[in-house]
Amino acid sequence: MKTIAIADDDIYIGNMLEALLRREGYHVLRAYSGTEALLLLTRNRPDLVLLDLMLPGLSGEEVLPKIQGIPVIVLSAKADVGDKVSLLLGGAADYMTKPFDTSELLARITVQLRGGGGITAEGITAGDLHLNLISHMVTVNRTEVRLTRTECAILKLLMMNPSQVIAKSVMLDRISEDTPDCTESSLKQHISNLRKKLRDVVGKDYIESVWGIGFKLTEES
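Structure (tokenized):
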């Protein structure tokens, strides 16, 4: 069962969203302020967050950059295009203006959960892996993993194509712009080092070798 966290101080809207999501089979967590939302996220790891901007305590804008590796759909009465662009560039996976159509919201939630968060202007999320495209910081379950430039380029390519097997030749070609020093003979070692660093965090493999072809993210990622 997927878990969705709702951060909204409007009791009516929060109750409506909770009833809607529970009816669709989701587990729901609630927070009524920005501070409470961050506390909730230190104790739980939902699959998606619905974040209101006008929160007491810390605002939604202040909370958003602190949420790593979890897709966030911003729900706000602010309809200005500039606000939307700023939030999307700031890490939001999507933005819906209040009042919104609940069927559209459910569709957008489905899209985000289907891809595990997918690609935003700020970063890439695949399961509990998150790569910040600006800082190049990689986190696993919000734990930072220090990668080399080549390892980061390899992971970025795999995360951008989570369901595909990437052939070795294709991988070398695609990462050559970022890491011209990576060769066919060194690629295997780079991937081995990357796998170990990721596995050391939570004890599971994130990269699968497909014999005779190449590599892909594991299905659980």
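The two ends are 16 Å apart (CA to CA). Residues 184-202 form the longest helix (19 residues).
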